[in-house]
Amino acid sequence: MEFPVGMFTLALLNDIADYAGSDLVLMRIPDLITAGILGTWMFSKGVKATSPTTRYLTALVVELTPFLGDVSPAWTIAVLITYYKQKNGIVNKAMNIASKKAIPTKK
Question: Which residues of the chain are under the pLDDT cut of 50?
């Protein structure tokens, strides 16, 4: 499992732009573009069983909140948590448990 350098860089650049005050000029457009890209990435990584919706929506709400979104690295943290959960097998274990409950096996 490789570290998602592209997604991490995107999240980090967005958070740095927030610190620099780009949201004052660009009216949250960078956050919405980043939300679309990172949301697609999170859901494509198979993290459905570990609540990417909660992680994604939390980061989005934090980023869109005035001042709080400018000082918190919410997208960077969301990418790191997604990578950590996938790397340590938390995603796979949760998906296996969910699939076993959904499909009963005959013995």
Answer: 92, 95
State the residue range of the domain holding 15: 5-29+48-100
Burial of 32 (0-12, 13-18, 19+ CB in 10 A): middle
Residue 38 phi/psi, 5-degree rounding, is: -70, -35
pLDDT digits (tens, 9 = 90+) for 3-19: 999 999 999 999 998 88
CB environment 66-97: b (16+ within 10 A), e (fewer): eeebbebbbbbbbbbbbbebbeeeebeebeee
CA separation for the pair 97, 9 (Å, rounded): 33
What pLDDT does residue 95 have?
Answer: 47
- The pLDDT of residue 73 is 93
Quote the number of domains for the chain: 1
Element (H, E) at 26: helix 22-26
